[in-house]
Amino acid sequence: MKNAFRIFILVLLTIFANTQLTTAQWSTDPGTNLMICDVTGEQVLAKIAMTSDAGCYISWFDTRSGSYNVYLQRLDTYGNKLWASDGLLISNHPQDTWLTDYDMIADQNDNAVLVFSDIRAGTLKPVAYKISPDGDFLWGPDGIDISTSDDFQPTPKVAQMSDGNYVFAWSTSQDISAIAVQKLSDDGQKLWGSVPIVIQSGTDNFSFPAVVRSDAGTVILVYTVWPDMYNTKIRAQKLDVNGQLLWGSDGISIQDNGQMGFYQVPFVRSDGNNGAFIAWYDGRAGNMLSSSFVQRISSDGNLHFPADGAEGSLNSSDNKFYPQIAFDESTQETYMFWVETDYNQVQNGITGQKFSYSGDRLWGNNGMVFVPLSTPNTLSLSDLVSYMGDNKTYVFYLKSAASGLNSELRGFACDADGNFVWPGDIVTLSNATQQKMQLSSAIDNYKNCKFAWEDQRLDDGGIYAQDINPSGQLGEPVTPVELTSFTASAFGNNVVLNWTTATEKNNWGFEVERKVRSPASGIYAGSDKQKSVGSQWEKVGFVGGYGTTTDPKSYSFTDQNLASGNYEYRLKQIDFDGSYEYSNIVEVEVNAPLQFALSQNYPNPFNPSTQIGYTIPEDGYVSLKVYNALGQEVVNLVNGIQKAGSHDLTFNASSVSSGVYYYRIESGENVSVKKMMVIK
Predict the structure, then answer these.
(1) 13 DSSP assignment
(2) 14 near 462, Cβ under 8 Å?
(3) How far apart are CA 419 and CA 443, in angstroms?
(4) SS (H, E, C) 274-295
């Protein structure tokens, strides 16, 4: 017994150690972080996009070979690199010695879709790549040239539409800037013609397009309009599935006072309901100060907030720059955060505002201060981002030292009343003292936030990453044991429980618990154990878990030889550390066998095994056979004398092909046939 116990403990420790290894890549130390790539040369302009399994893609430009090439890395939930250590080379085509912005998304099939501009054709033109989770180039090794023009064409953007196709938008300019758009199918076919659609004006420049998925395959396009460098406005347009303009030739005005610089890029994001949020800052007050504003536009072109936007703060003594939006879909309340500076822009802080559905300020006319102005030090804040999730709002930013270098990545979370909810209020995610730039961020299905940025801690620049979970902890992503189904089915005197999980973290296993609600006889078949109505929960079995995994898993347990009556079952899911939680309760009725019956197999369809149950009213010869659709016998499951009562068996179809099959039982003069389906 002692040796057996030692073996059990060794197995447990081995499982636990292996589980921990899968979660060890994300750093718990803000001074270390996760190095994505830091080789010779520069690694710059990181982008990050989340996949449905809570992993992510990270892309960047890289000069390890002398020119700016494009690289991509894929991480699992726990920060393990799934491709080559220093990334997958996407493009080594010629690039300028300077870079413009680009875009990357993870689509509904977890492919990475990138679009960037390079000079492979002589002038700066956009190209699109689609990379599978296995690193395959789905749109060819050189991607797709989405433009036929030789104009200067920087800063392309991409979004996937509700019909699965992709819409790209970018600036194109010679004398006057315009917006070009193209739509690609899943297999890379150009759906809006060989030449992109161009949206332009004879007098105004159009710049900085953003694309947002809307209803029925349509897209909302947001862009800036400027007749000169000091009079910039914001406009929205909607295109149907064929690229036709739906909101008139001039679109819908988002900001019409023109008090923006031509270099300003509005913040644009989906509202989760086929509409869009747009946030910006402008100097409409005319006092040499700027203030932040937000507008929400619905899929039908209606504006939720006042014309020219809802203002976050009426404080007339400070600037409010770089607004970011988070949206609570459950309450329809909008959160906006911005960098607040004094008049001379030498002191910096962060202020926020909550808006009602119609744009009313809910945190007072001046909002709520989360990071006070940095008096007396001269500090700066940049790369502000925010997200909504888990009944709180997350805000992250880069903070500079007195030297002016962005030396720290910080963040906080607040509830609906603006109260800090993380220990210590402000959490430091990275405090390596070297310069940090171009912060990119995303949030996964479980509300873990992940970041990638350029960091000069070793040389001219590398790419580093960090995660933080909803509790404010670094390096410990939340991937709970997510139970997606739990069912109970009676087969004679037996109950079969089936359940599935979508993800698991540190899952030791499941205790199966049963409670008797109303037994008919009060006696379990095959025993003399008495049970009364309203009895306590009792453990009737245990099924081991898979530890930590992001793959769906299926489980089954059979509770045998039960008396007729009503029963309740629940699962007690237990972690390696002993913590546990209960599932929902399922009910099932067990009926005493009264007559001949053949039950429908479960599950059905199935692969590779299924349960078949039947009852026979008296002792006798039983034959149970499986036939294919042509009536040919496939297997003889039962052939002999059996006792009266309920019976069940497992049919394993590993050796047969997919298709429809029939199982037929004979017992005395009784015959019954049912259909089942094998899917492989």
Answers:
(1) H
(2) no
(3) 21
(4) CCEEEEEEECCCCCCCCEEEEE
pLDDT of 213 strictly over 90: yes
Do 480-592 and 593-680 come out as alike in CATH topology? Answer: yes
pLDDT above 90 (res 274): yes
Residue given tokens 């500090």 in the structure block: 379
Domain limits of the chain?
Answer: 93-265, 269-379, 480-592, 593-680
CA dist 663 and 599 (Å) reads 11
Strand 597-598 versus strand 586-590 pairing type: unpaired
Q: Are 638 and 655 in contact (CB under 8 A)?
A: no
CA dist 164 to 49, 213, 465, 499, Å? 17, 10, 30, 31
Q: What is the pLDDT of residues 503-540, one digit of tens each?
A: 888 899 999 999 987 654 333 333 333 333 456 899 99
Most distant CA atoms of the chain, gap in Å: 98
Residues 6+ apart with CB under 8 A from 417: none
Question: Hey, how many other C-beta atoms are within 10 angstroms of the C-beta on 420?
Answer: 16
Does 1 score more than 70 pLDDT? Answer: no
Predicted confidence at residue 544, as pLDDT, reads: 95
Peptide bond into 227 cis (omega under 30): no
Question: What is the Cα–Cα distance from 235 to 226, expressed in whole angstroms?
Answer: 11
**Which of these CATH numbers, 2.115.10.20, 3.40.30.10, 1.10.443.10, 2.60.40.10, describes 93-265?**
2.115.10.20
Are 311 and 296 contacting, i.e. CB atoms less than 8 angstroms apart?
A: no
CATH code for 593-680? 2.60.40.2550
**The pTM is what?**
0.75
Architecture of domain 480-592: Sandwich (2.60)
Convert 557-582 into a string of H (helix), E (strand) and C (coil).
Answer: EEECCCCCEEEEEEEEEEECCCCEEE
The span from the CA of 438 to the CA of 45, in Å, is: 6
Residues in Cβ contact with 391 at an 8 Å cutoff, skipping those fewer than 6 apart: 415, 416
Q: Which residues pair with 613 in a beta bridge?
A: 648
Tell me how far apart the alpha carbons of residues 334 and 579 are, in angstroms, rounded to a whole number.
Answer: 36
Average pLDDT value for residue range 327-336 = 95
pLDDT in tens, 38-49: 999 999 999 999
